[in-house]
User: Fold this.
Amino acid sequence: MSSKNVVLFGPPGAGKGTQAAKLKEYLDVPHISTGDMFRDNIKNQTELGKTAQSYSSQGKLVPDEVTIAMVKDRLGRDDVKDGFLLDGFPRSVPQAEALEKILAELSTQLDHVINIAVDDEEVRSRLAKRASIEGRADDADPAIIQNRIDTYKSQSEPCLDYYRPKNNVRDIDGIGSVDEIFVRIKKVFE
Ligand code: AMP
Assistant:
């Protein structure tokens, strides 16, 4: 199998978490979800959690320096030496730049940026649906959903322009069944 340092990218509601759960099994690498890490910290009301909550509850990004420090710490652990699946990071160009630096310090690099592409209307309807199923606070309020979409457009989507010249972006059509989309993602590693 080809190299396994992977970023799973896409708008909120693209299905990153669902696909990551399958892909981490397939690649046999740790799944590193910054959203899950923040939610764990929020649940346990750690200092990091309290900071994260003040942003995530409004659909805003947690500041780069906080998020980057958390990811740097996680990527310093031994279990990522044969690969990792980053889900929800990077979400800003400074985060993408920081990731490149962190990986260079670890004498490695990013192999694939898998971009799950889903249009705005689909994102909106999926987030509304997820709110009723998972009860996530940041999915419940249409104004917060709009904030998350706007944040994605203004801060996260430019990461693709950062990565495209490096030729490691793979665009995946995110419309279809979970299994159909997973088949498309697996092709990246064939
Ligand atoms: P997610 O589950 O990936 O949608 O993340 C939930 C929330 O956690 C986001 O709306 C942000 O507030 C925060 N978050 C997750 N990942 C990041 C990141 N890379 N940078 C900043 N904030 C993040």
In short: The mean pLDDT is 93.
